[in-house]
Amino acid sequence: MTWNEAIVKVLAENGKSMHYLDITQEILDKGYKTKSGATPAMTVSNQLTTNPDIFRRVGKGTYELV
């Protein structure tokens, strides 16, 4: 599963906007991805900000599915 797929899955399961740190923690807790690198939160943040066709920013560090 890619990071984007994991983010989409978490946001879809929760059905609401979430902060990128909470998204990251849930991805790791549910085992969708393993901590493969020093900064998984920055990876999630980068995916959220560089894919505006998938994710929409609704607040500081908070995103939802488009």
Description:
It is a single chain. The protein has 66 residues and is of the alpha+beta class. It has one domain (3-53). Helices cover 48% and strands 17% of the residues. It has three helices and three strands; from the N terminus they run H-E-H-H-E-E. It has helices at 3-14, 20-29, 40-49; strands at residues 18-19, 55-59, 62-65. It has a three-stranded antiparallel β-sheet. Helix 1 (3-14) packs across helix 2 (20-29). The radius of gyration is 10 Å and the shape is globular.
Question: How does the SSE layout of this entry go?
Answer:
Elements: H1 3-14, E1 18-19, H2 20-29, H3 40-49, E2 55-59, E3 62-65
Antiparallel strand pairs: 1-3, 2-3
Helix pairs in contact: 1-2, 2-3
Q: Percentage of helical residues? A: 40-55%
What is the mean predicted local confidence, pLDDT?
95
Domain tally:
1
Specify the structural class.
alpha+beta
Q: What is the overall silhouette?
A: globular
For the largest beta sheet, what order do the strands appear in spatially? 1-3-2
**In percent, how much strand structure appears in the residues?**
15-25%
Order of helices and strands: HEHHEE
Radius of gyration: 10 Å
Give the number of DSSP strands.
Answer: 3
Unreliable segments of 5+ consecutive residues? none
Q: Specify the number of helices.
A: 3
Largest sheet: 3 strands, antiparallel
Distance between the termini: 20 Å
